[in-house]
């Protein structure tokens, strides 16, 4: 018998309150090393809040436990230990594509010339060949998102948090980026937590899909995705895929109705 591997990230009874708004309440979530976990849930249920805590940008309420690499840590100690792509791309308008991409490495005190050379090499893979010297205002929304994604990849940490990274992409580019992301993930064996509004995307990418409840968000249901890898586009028409999609959509719809049925 092999020893069970401890989770890379383990959240227990995580809660976060902003003034009179409780964003998340009692979130329990464990992510195994190398796992790809996708998170769906109604708008405003606290998904980004959860990520901001894991990225070390926000503190949870007292009593919440965050464990990382099998140790209890203060959330702010996670800053710089995970790579994070926030929901808004947050590119600096006065920096070109390359210098935006290398920003976290630069802050860390890495070698700027080496980082630039690596970013140059990665441009084609991110559909940005020839755009090294462009500034964010010269890029399309999708391109800006790909720069932010490239920046997240360049900051090599075991845990990668992606908050709706493909949200602004057209359907075709999105499908291409999903397959590309799976390739890169399989090659590099990174652990990924991925937020999306798109159930197809959640199933296609994930080892496991979590559905969050309406605010205050908690994990309503989680389902393993027992579909073979590497994943092929034809999977989306398989019986297993359709059955899982139906179940997840029903759970999301139930929660969305709660969200939109409540007076704000
Ligand atoms: N910094 C903040 N200060 C005050 N309230 C906040 C803050 N960040 C989030 N909230 C509140 O917490 C709740 C959850 O927001 P959050 O951004 O986590 O939702 P979400 O699930 O990511 O939504 P979406 O799918 O629309 O991105 C919302 O009611 C929001 O108003
Ligand atoms: Mg969000």
TrEMBL record:
One Pfam assignment: ABC_tran
Q: Name one GO molecular function term.
A: ATP hydrolysis activity
Is the keyword Cytoplasm assigned to this protein? no
The entry's keywords: ATP-binding, Nucleotide-binding, Transport
> What SMART domains does this protein map onto?
AAA
Ranges for the ABC transporter domain? Answer: 9-239
Recorded family membership:
Belongs to the ABC transporter superfamily.
Q: By what name is this protein known? A: ABC transporter ATP-binding protein
What organism does the UniProt record list as the source?
Paenirhodobacter populi
